[in-house]
Amino acid sequence: MSHLRAVRTDPPPEPGLLDRLTASGARLVDGRAVANDFGDVAREHAAVRRAVGIGVRDRLFTRFEGPHATRFLQGMVTQDVAGLAVGDARYALMLTPKARVLSDLRLLRLGDELLVADSEPDATPGLRSTLVRYRLGSRVAIEPLEDWACLAVAGPRAGMLLLDAFGVLPRVEPPEGTGTLLELDGTALHAVASTLYGEKAVEILGPAAGVAAAWAALSDHLPRHGGAPFGTAAEEILRVEAGVPRQGAELDEQVMPAEVGVVERAVSFTKGCYIGQEPVARLHYRGHANRVLRALLLDGAPPAPGSEVVLDGKTVGRVTSAVRSPSLGRTVALGVLRRELEDGRQVLVTRDGEERPAEVAPVPVYSWRGA
After folding, report:
1. pLDDT digits 0-9 by tens, 81-115
2. Contact 165/217 with Cβ under 8 angstroms?
């Protein structure tokens, strides 16, 4: 008589985030687990504006841990880190001593002396090196967090999709950064309220394996809410329409926070000293910025960043971002312009000798119909 021996086999591993995106039809950014698009940018944009969309954001993560983590960051960035509750996040800026923007970042508190920052990939190396340089004798580890990811859920039906997928309803409206803990397949994820797209929105941060599981759960319920996945191409259109500054475009070492409209979001005037505090406070209490973030409406292809904005032969600003807006059927640009330019004012956008007429508009601009 023969004996058959049962062989124990482990279940196959769950698909990772890259596999999930590929299965959803994503065209990837440089082969990474970030989608540029899913084949129809206009449809992706419409899903967020009219129903709900889900998209992986292109972010890098940095971990701060040690007995001096809170005190150190409190003296570095514009936000009140000491007042940040566990599970919540705050948008902040790292400034130069002259209060120009070195980088923006979001800080999420995971424990009393454990925080995670996410930031734009191009700005993150410089941000990390600056913080390490200022660390001196502070007992805080500053390390890349390689296995984290960020998933955005945005649109009028975002809350309903989240409730269907997870059985809980994170906050999807301001105040920005209000956090909700999600437990998924034994992994802790952090859902924080977001203002990135001008719609109800949450961003889910945590280990990439958990974010991949969140993508799967949300994807299962997406069709019944009329939603779709979206990539970074649609995200950029949504951001520009909403007038939200981005590091490397509106935010750079040429501008102060007040000139790009982020003071209310990013700056605490009740905390102690931080790098660049004096110029920020002086401008806030004793004056006003001579330049502000505005939108420009024009026809034709989006103008190149850096194009000059001209009125009566004088340069009154520069273009920082530009997209073709499905909401308005026109090109929308963001620019840092002289504050005295009123809505509806006609100006010229110039580049390499070419002049194009444009109309000054407020931000957010996607629902504006003119003066």
Report:
1. 999 999 999 999 999 999 999 999 999 999 999 99
2. yes
Q: Minimal CA–CA distance to 307: which of 341, 342, 333, 340? A: 333
Q: Where are the beta strands (DSSP E) in the chain?
A: 27-28, 35-37, 53-56, 60-65, 89-95, 101-111, 114-119, 141-144, 148-154, 179-184, 187-193, 201-207, 228-229, 291-298, 308-311, 314-325, 330-338, 346-351, 354-361
* CA gap 193, 202 in Å, rounded: 5
Cβ burial of 129 (10 Å; 0-12, 13-18, 19+) is exposed
Q: Which CATH architecture has domain 13-286?
A: 2-Layer Sandwich (3.30)
Residue extents of the structural domains in the chain? 13-286, 290-364
Determine which helix (DSSP H) or strand (DSSP E) holds 254, and give its type and residue range: none
Number of helices followed by number of strands (H, E) in the chain = 9, 19
How many whole angstroms separate alpha carbon 200 and alpha carbon 255?
28
The answer to whether the CB of 83 falls within 8 A of the CB of 259 is: no
Cα four-point dihedral sign 69, 72, 76, 77: positive
If phi > 0 it is left, if psi is from -120 to 50 it is alpha, else beta; for residue 185 that is left
Both structure tokens of 239: 């951001």
- pTM for the whole structure: 0.93
Residues 143-170 have pLDDT tens digits of 999 999 999 999 999 999 999 999 999 9
- Which residues are annotated as part of the binding site for substrate? 203
Strands (E), 97-173: 101-111, 114-119, 141-144, 148-154
Matching fold, domains 13-286 and 290-364: no
Residue ranges of the binding site: 203
Render pLDDT for 336-362 as a digit per residue (tens, 0 to 9): 999 999 999 999 999 998 999 999 999
The CATH number of 290-364, from 3.30.470.20, 1.20.1110.10, 2.40.30.110, 1.20.1250.20, is 2.40.30.110
